[in-house]
Amino acid sequence: MSLGYADRLKEYPHKGVCGLPEKQDTERQLQLSLRTLVDLVSSAEHLVVLTGAGISTAAGIPDFRGPDGIWTTQNALERAAAGKPKAGAKRKRKPKAGAAAGSGAAEGGAAAPPAETRSGAIDFASASPTLTHHALAELARLGKLKYVVTQNVDALHQRSGLPRSKLAVLHGCIFEERCEACGALYLRETDVGTISFQPTGRYCTRVGEAAGSAACGGVLRDTLLDWEDPLPEAELTEAERHCERADLILALGTSLRIEPAGSLPCRHRRGGGYVIVNLQRTPKDSKAKLIVRAPVDRVMAALMREVMGLELERGAAGARWVATGTGGAATGGAMPEASSLTAGAGGAPASAPVAEG
Ligand SMILES: [Zn+2]
Protein backbone atom coordinates (compact mmCIF):
# COMPACT_ATOMS: atom_id res chain seq x y z
CA MET A 1 0.00 0.00 0.00
CA SER A 2 1.09 3.54 -0.53
CA LEU A 3 1.87 5.87 2.34
CA GLY A 4 -0.72 5.47 5.13
CA TYR A 5 -3.47 8.03 5.48
CA ALA A 6 -2.16 9.54 8.73
CA ASP A 7 1.34 9.79 7.24
CA ARG A 8 -0.09 11.59 4.23
CA LEU A 9 -1.60 14.38 6.35
CA LYS A 10 0.47 17.52 6.89
CA GLU A 11 1.99 18.28 10.28
CA TYR A 12 -0.70 19.87 12.42
CA PRO A 13 -0.39 20.76 16.10
CA HIS A 14 -4.07 21.20 17.00
CA LYS A 15 -5.32 17.67 17.10
CA GLY A 16 -7.32 18.13 20.28
CA VAL A 17 -7.45 16.03 23.42
CA CYS A 18 -5.96 12.58 22.95
CA GLY A 19 -5.56 9.52 25.12
CA LEU A 20 -8.44 10.08 27.51
CA PRO A 21 -9.22 6.91 29.44
CA GLU A 22 -11.87 4.63 28.03
CA LYS A 23 -14.70 3.72 30.35
CA GLN A 24 -17.37 1.09 30.17
CA ASP A 25 -20.76 1.10 31.83
CA THR A 26 -21.44 -1.56 34.42
CA GLU A 27 -23.61 -4.37 33.10
CA ARG A 28 -26.57 -3.08 35.10
CA GLN A 29 -26.12 0.49 33.81
CA LEU A 30 -25.75 -0.79 30.26
CA GLN A 31 -28.97 -2.78 30.44
CA LEU A 32 -30.84 0.29 31.71
CA SER A 33 -29.34 2.49 28.99
CA LEU A 34 -30.13 -0.04 26.27
CA ARG A 35 -33.76 -0.13 27.36
CA THR A 36 -33.96 3.65 27.02
CA LEU A 37 -32.15 3.57 23.69
CA VAL A 38 -34.48 0.90 22.30
CA ASP A 39 -37.47 3.12 23.16
CA LEU A 40 -35.86 6.18 21.59
CA VAL A 41 -34.94 4.38 18.37
CA SER A 42 -38.30 2.61 18.15
CA SER A 43 -40.19 5.87 18.23
CA ALA A 44 -37.79 7.86 16.03
CA GLU A 45 -39.20 8.93 12.69
CA HIS A 46 -36.15 10.68 11.31
CA LEU A 47 -33.13 8.82 12.64
CA VAL A 48 -29.69 10.09 11.63
CA VAL A 49 -26.34 8.51 12.58
CA LEU A 50 -22.93 10.18 12.81
CA THR A 51 -19.97 7.80 12.85
CA GLY A 52 -16.28 8.05 13.70
CA ALA A 53 -13.25 5.80 13.87
CA GLY A 54 -14.62 3.97 16.91
CA ILE A 55 -16.94 1.97 14.68
CA SER A 56 -14.02 0.65 12.62
CA THR A 57 -11.61 -0.40 15.38
CA ALA A 58 -13.34 -3.79 15.49
CA ALA A 59 -12.31 -4.16 11.83
CA GLY A 60 -8.67 -3.72 12.87
CA ILE A 61 -8.33 -0.05 11.93
CA PRO A 62 -6.92 2.07 14.78
CA ASP A 63 -8.68 5.22 15.92
CA PHE A 64 -6.99 8.58 16.50
CA ARG A 65 -7.60 9.66 20.09
CA GLY A 66 -8.17 6.41 21.98
CA PRO A 67 -5.52 5.19 24.48
CA ASP A 68 -3.69 3.52 21.56
CA GLY A 69 -4.87 5.94 18.90
CA ILE A 70 -2.62 7.34 16.22
CA TRP A 71 -2.48 10.89 17.56
CA THR A 72 -2.15 9.67 21.15
CA THR A 73 0.81 7.54 20.13
CA GLN A 74 2.35 10.34 18.10
CA ASN A 75 1.95 12.85 20.96
CA ALA A 76 3.56 10.45 23.42
CA LEU A 77 6.54 9.96 21.10
CA GLU A 78 6.91 13.71 20.56
CA ARG A 79 6.75 14.41 24.29
CA ALA A 80 9.27 11.69 25.00
CA ALA A 81 11.59 13.09 22.32
CA ALA A 82 11.26 16.55 23.89
CA GLY A 83 12.02 15.17 27.35
CA LYS A 84 8.57 16.06 28.69
CA PRO A 85 6.56 13.83 30.97
CA LYS A 86 3.75 12.06 29.23
CA ALA A 87 0.31 13.62 29.22
CA GLY A 88 -2.64 12.19 31.13
CA ALA A 89 -2.87 9.18 28.88
CA LYS A 90 -2.84 5.81 30.57
CA ARG A 91 -1.08 4.00 27.77
CA LYS A 92 1.92 1.96 28.78
CA ARG A 93 3.10 0.13 25.68
CA LYS A 94 5.75 1.86 23.68
CA PRO A 95 4.49 2.24 20.14
CA LYS A 96 6.60 1.43 17.14
CA ALA A 97 7.42 4.29 14.84
CA GLY A 98 5.44 4.80 11.69
CA ALA A 99 2.05 4.12 13.20
CA ALA A 100 -0.48 3.28 10.60
CA ALA A 101 -3.34 5.16 9.18
CA GLY A 102 -6.64 5.39 10.97
CA SER A 103 -10.15 5.46 9.90
CA GLY A 104 -11.48 8.94 10.40
CA ALA A 105 -10.33 12.21 11.60
CA ALA A 106 -11.56 12.09 15.13
CA GLU A 107 -12.48 9.38 17.46
CA GLY A 108 -12.51 7.34 20.62
CA GLY A 109 -12.55 3.69 19.97
CA ALA A 110 -14.76 0.75 20.60
CA ALA A 111 -13.30 -2.71 20.92
CA ALA A 112 -9.51 -2.61 20.83
CA PRO A 113 -7.97 -3.85 17.61
CA PRO A 114 -5.52 -6.74 17.62
CA ALA A 115 -2.13 -5.58 18.92
CA GLU A 116 -0.30 -6.14 15.66
CA THR A 117 -2.66 -3.78 13.89
CA ARG A 118 -2.03 -1.00 16.39
CA SER A 119 1.61 -0.70 15.50
CA GLY A 120 2.00 -2.01 11.99
CA ALA A 121 0.72 -0.75 8.69
CA ILE A 122 -2.97 -1.37 8.16
CA ASP A 123 -4.14 -2.74 4.91
CA PHE A 124 -7.40 -0.83 4.62
CA ALA A 125 -8.34 -2.81 1.55
CA SER A 126 -8.55 -6.06 3.50
CA ALA A 127 -10.71 -4.64 6.33
CA SER A 128 -14.32 -5.81 6.33
CA PRO A 129 -17.41 -3.96 7.55
CA THR A 130 -18.22 -4.53 11.22
CA LEU A 131 -21.57 -5.50 12.72
CA THR A 132 -22.26 -1.78 13.15
CA HIS A 133 -21.65 -1.04 9.46
CA HIS A 134 -23.95 -3.92 8.48
CA ALA A 135 -26.59 -2.79 10.98
CA LEU A 136 -26.66 0.76 9.59
CA ALA A 137 -26.93 -0.51 6.01
CA GLU A 138 -29.85 -2.75 7.00
CA LEU A 139 -31.60 0.00 8.97
CA ALA A 140 -31.29 2.29 5.93
CA ARG A 141 -32.59 -0.43 3.61
CA LEU A 142 -35.61 -0.90 5.85
CA GLY A 143 -36.26 2.84 5.92
CA LYS A 144 -35.68 3.13 9.66
CA LEU A 145 -32.46 5.11 9.22
CA LYS A 146 -32.68 8.17 7.00
CA TYR A 147 -29.07 9.28 6.70
CA VAL A 148 -25.52 8.47 7.82
CA VAL A 149 -22.75 11.03 8.21
CA THR A 150 -19.25 9.65 8.58
CA GLN A 151 -15.85 11.12 9.37
CA ASN A 152 -14.22 7.85 8.34
CA VAL A 153 -12.10 7.50 5.22
CA ASP A 154 -12.09 3.69 5.17
CA ALA A 155 -15.06 3.02 2.79
CA LEU A 156 -16.51 0.42 5.15
CA HIS A 157 -19.94 2.08 4.99
CA GLN A 158 -19.83 1.93 1.19
CA ARG A 159 -18.69 -1.72 1.29
CA SER A 160 -21.50 -2.66 3.69
CA GLY A 161 -24.05 -1.87 0.98
CA LEU A 162 -25.24 1.46 2.40
CA PRO A 163 -26.33 3.50 -0.65
CA ARG A 164 -24.02 6.43 -1.31
CA SER A 165 -27.12 8.63 -1.60
CA LYS A 166 -27.78 8.05 2.11
CA LEU A 167 -24.20 8.73 3.17
CA ALA A 168 -22.13 11.89 3.64
CA VAL A 169 -18.39 11.20 3.64
CA LEU A 170 -17.24 14.44 5.22
CA HIS A 171 -13.48 13.91 5.28
CA GLY A 172 -13.20 12.11 1.96
CA CYS A 173 -12.31 8.49 1.35
CA ILE A 174 -9.06 6.81 0.46
CA PHE A 175 -10.85 4.51 -2.01
CA GLU A 176 -12.87 7.13 -3.85
CA GLU A 177 -11.92 9.40 -6.72
CA ARG A 178 -14.02 11.99 -8.50
CA CYS A 179 -14.08 13.32 -12.04
CA GLU A 180 -13.28 17.03 -12.14
CA ALA A 181 -15.30 17.43 -15.36
CA CYS A 182 -18.59 15.62 -14.72
CA GLY A 183 -18.45 14.89 -10.97
CA ALA A 184 -18.75 11.10 -11.36
CA LEU A 185 -17.56 9.30 -8.23
CA TYR A 186 -15.65 6.01 -8.37
CA LEU A 187 -15.17 3.54 -5.50
CA ARG A 188 -11.96 1.57 -6.01
CA GLU A 189 -10.77 -1.70 -4.52
CA THR A 190 -7.42 -0.14 -3.64
CA ASP A 191 -6.26 3.11 -2.01
CA VAL A 192 -6.14 5.80 -4.69
CA GLY A 193 -2.89 6.96 -3.09
CA THR A 194 -3.06 10.76 -2.94
CA ILE A 195 -4.49 13.47 -0.69
CA SER A 196 -5.88 17.01 -1.06
CA PHE A 197 -7.69 16.56 -4.39
CA GLN A 198 -4.63 15.68 -6.46
CA PRO A 199 -4.92 13.98 -9.86
CA THR A 200 -4.69 10.22 -9.34
CA GLY A 201 -3.40 9.49 -12.82
CA ARG A 202 -6.68 7.96 -14.03
CA TYR A 203 -9.41 9.36 -16.26
CA CYS A 204 -13.20 9.24 -16.22
CA THR A 205 -14.68 6.36 -18.21
CA ARG A 206 -18.27 7.46 -17.89
CA VAL A 207 -20.13 7.37 -21.16
CA GLY A 208 -22.97 9.79 -21.91
CA GLU A 209 -26.48 8.47 -22.54
CA ALA A 210 -26.79 9.67 -26.13
CA ALA A 211 -25.97 7.05 -28.74
CA GLY A 212 -22.39 7.17 -29.90
CA SER A 213 -21.22 9.25 -26.93
CA ALA A 214 -17.54 9.06 -26.09
CA ALA A 215 -16.21 8.50 -22.59
CA CYS A 216 -15.96 11.67 -20.51
CA GLY A 217 -12.18 11.41 -20.15
CA GLY A 218 -12.05 13.98 -17.34
CA VAL A 219 -9.18 13.99 -14.84
CA LEU A 220 -9.92 11.96 -11.70
CA ARG A 221 -8.86 13.43 -8.35
CA ASP A 222 -8.79 11.96 -4.85
CA THR A 223 -11.45 13.10 -2.37
CA LEU A 224 -9.30 12.95 0.77
CA LEU A 225 -9.11 16.07 2.93
CA ASP A 226 -5.91 17.34 4.47
CA TRP A 227 -6.31 19.41 7.66
CA GLU A 228 -7.22 22.70 6.04
CA ASP A 229 -9.08 21.50 2.97
CA PRO A 230 -12.76 22.44 2.57
CA LEU A 231 -15.38 19.81 3.28
CA PRO A 232 -17.48 18.54 0.35
CA GLU A 233 -20.14 21.22 0.31
CA ALA A 234 -23.06 19.25 -1.10
CA GLU A 235 -22.58 16.40 1.36
CA LEU A 236 -22.12 18.73 4.33
CA THR A 237 -25.31 20.60 3.37
CA GLU A 238 -27.22 17.33 3.10
CA ALA A 239 -25.81 16.20 6.47
CA GLU A 240 -26.93 19.46 8.09
CA ARG A 241 -30.36 19.22 6.51
CA HIS A 242 -30.92 15.71 7.86
CA CYS A 243 -29.60 16.62 11.31
CA GLU A 244 -31.98 19.58 11.46
CA ARG A 245 -34.90 17.32 10.55
CA ALA A 246 -33.84 14.54 12.90
CA ASP A 247 -35.84 13.63 15.96
CA LEU A 248 -32.96 11.40 17.04
CA ILE A 249 -29.25 11.51 16.20
CA LEU A 250 -26.94 8.69 17.23
CA ALA A 251 -23.24 9.60 17.49
CA LEU A 252 -21.36 6.29 17.28
CA GLY A 253 -17.66 5.86 18.05
CA THR A 254 -16.75 9.51 17.72
CA SER A 255 -15.12 11.80 20.27
CA LEU A 256 -16.85 14.77 18.57
CA ARG A 257 -13.67 16.84 18.61
CA ILE A 258 -13.38 17.74 14.94
CA GLU A 259 -15.60 20.50 13.55
CA PRO A 260 -17.98 20.92 11.88
CA ALA A 261 -18.82 17.22 12.24
CA GLY A 262 -18.58 17.34 16.04
CA SER A 263 -21.41 19.84 16.33
CA LEU A 264 -23.81 18.14 13.92
CA PRO A 265 -25.60 16.24 16.73
CA CYS A 266 -26.52 19.60 18.29
CA ARG A 267 -28.36 20.79 15.16
CA HIS A 268 -31.60 18.88 15.72
CA ARG A 269 -34.57 21.20 15.90
CA ARG A 270 -37.42 18.90 16.72
CA GLY A 271 -36.67 18.47 20.39
CA GLY A 272 -35.46 14.92 19.90
CA GLY A 273 -31.87 15.25 20.93
CA TYR A 274 -28.87 13.03 20.49
CA VAL A 275 -27.37 9.92 22.03
CA ILE A 276 -23.63 9.30 22.29
CA VAL A 277 -22.19 5.79 22.18
CA ASN A 278 -18.47 6.17 22.85
CA LEU A 279 -15.92 4.85 25.35
CA GLN A 280 -14.29 8.22 25.94
CA ARG A 281 -16.00 11.35 27.17
CA THR A 282 -16.71 14.03 24.58
CA PRO A 283 -17.19 17.82 24.66
CA LYS A 284 -20.88 17.26 23.80
CA ASP A 285 -21.67 14.89 26.68
CA SER A 286 -23.47 17.44 28.86
CA LYS A 287 -26.28 18.02 26.35
CA ALA A 288 -26.75 14.40 25.33
CA LYS A 289 -30.06 12.69 26.01
CA LEU A 290 -28.20 9.50 26.83
CA ILE A 291 -24.57 8.40 26.93
CA VAL A 292 -23.69 4.75 26.49
CA ARG A 293 -20.16 3.64 27.36
CA ALA A 294 -19.95 0.31 25.60
CA PRO A 295 -18.49 -1.11 22.38
CA VAL A 296 -20.64 0.10 19.48
CA ASP A 297 -21.05 -3.39 18.03
CA ARG A 298 -22.60 -4.60 21.28
CA VAL A 299 -25.01 -1.67 21.35
CA MET A 300 -26.00 -2.05 17.70
CA ALA A 301 -26.48 -5.81 18.06
CA ALA A 302 -28.88 -5.13 20.93
CA LEU A 303 -30.73 -2.47 18.94
CA MET A 304 -31.12 -4.70 15.90
CA ARG A 305 -32.42 -7.54 18.07
CA GLU A 306 -34.79 -5.49 20.21
CA VAL A 307 -36.07 -2.94 17.71
CA MET A 308 -35.96 -4.84 14.40
CA GLY A 309 -36.02 -8.49 15.54
CA LEU A 310 -32.88 -9.26 13.55
CA GLU A 311 -29.51 -10.81 14.24
CA LEU A 312 -26.41 -10.98 12.08
CA GLU A 313 -25.33 -14.33 10.71
CA ARG A 314 -21.86 -14.54 9.25
CA GLY A 315 -21.04 -17.38 6.92
CA ALA A 316 -18.70 -18.23 4.09
CA ALA A 317 -20.96 -16.32 1.69
CA GLY A 318 -20.83 -13.16 3.77
CA ALA A 319 -23.05 -11.63 6.40
CA ARG A 320 -26.85 -11.51 6.46
CA TRP A 321 -29.56 -10.42 8.85
CA VAL A 322 -32.03 -13.08 9.91
CA ALA A 323 -35.16 -12.83 12.02
CA THR A 324 -34.70 -13.70 15.67
CA GLY A 325 -38.36 -14.57 15.96
CA THR A 326 -38.59 -12.59 19.16
CA GLY A 327 -38.59 -8.95 18.15
CA GLY A 328 -39.87 -6.78 15.36
CA ALA A 329 -43.04 -5.71 17.12
CA ALA A 330 -41.42 -2.58 18.51
CA THR A 331 -41.48 -0.87 15.11
CA GLY A 332 -45.21 -1.42 14.88
CA GLY A 333 -44.83 -2.91 11.41
CA ALA A 334 -44.46 -6.32 9.89
CA MET A 335 -41.35 -8.34 10.53
CA PRO A 336 -38.80 -7.02 8.07
CA GLU A 337 -37.59 -9.37 5.45
CA ALA A 338 -34.09 -10.61 6.13
CA SER A 339 -31.59 -9.48 3.55
CA SER A 340 -28.42 -10.94 2.21
CA LEU A 341 -25.23 -8.99 2.27
CA THR A 342 -21.86 -9.95 0.98
CA ALA A 343 -19.29 -8.66 3.38
CA GLY A 344 -16.68 -6.49 1.77
CA ALA A 345 -18.23 -6.66 -1.66
CA GLY A 346 -20.39 -3.56 -1.67
CA GLY A 347 -20.01 -0.80 -4.17
CA ALA A 348 -19.87 -0.74 -7.89
CA PRO A 349 -17.52 -2.46 -10.30
CA ALA A 350 -14.13 -0.81 -10.32
CA SER A 351 -14.72 1.22 -13.45
CA ALA A 352 -18.35 2.24 -12.97
CA PRO A 353 -19.11 5.52 -11.23
CA VAL A 354 -21.13 5.01 -8.04
CA ALA A 355 -22.64 8.47 -7.88
CA GLU A 356 -22.66 11.74 -9.66
CA GLY A 357 -21.48 15.01 -8.26
ZN1 LIG B 1 -16.32 12.50 -15.98
Automatic annotation (TrEMBL):
GO terms for biological process: negative regulation of transcription by RNA polymerase II. Residues 87-96 have a biased composition (Basic residues). The active site is at 171 (proton acceptor). Its EC number is 2.3.1.286. Residues 97-116, 332-357 have a biased composition (Low complexity). Keywords: Metal-binding, NAD, Transferase, Zinc. This is protein acetyllysine N-acetyltransferase. Belongs to the sirtuin family. Class IV subfamily. InterPro entries: DHS-like_NAD/FAD-binding_dom, NAD-dep_sirtuin_deacylases, Sirtuin, Ssirtuin_cat_dom. The lineage of its organism: Eukaryota, Haptista, Haptophyta, Prymnesiophyceae, Isochrysidales. The keyword Zinc applies. It comes from the Eukaryota. Pfam families: SIR2 (PF02146). Residues 27-310 form the Deacetylase sirtuin-type domain. GO terms for cellular component: nucleus. Zn(2+) binds at residues 179, 182, 204, 216. Residues 81-116, 328-357 are annotated as: Disordered. GO terms for molecular function: histone deacetylase activity, NAD-dependent; metal ion binding; NAD+ binding; transcription corepressor activity.
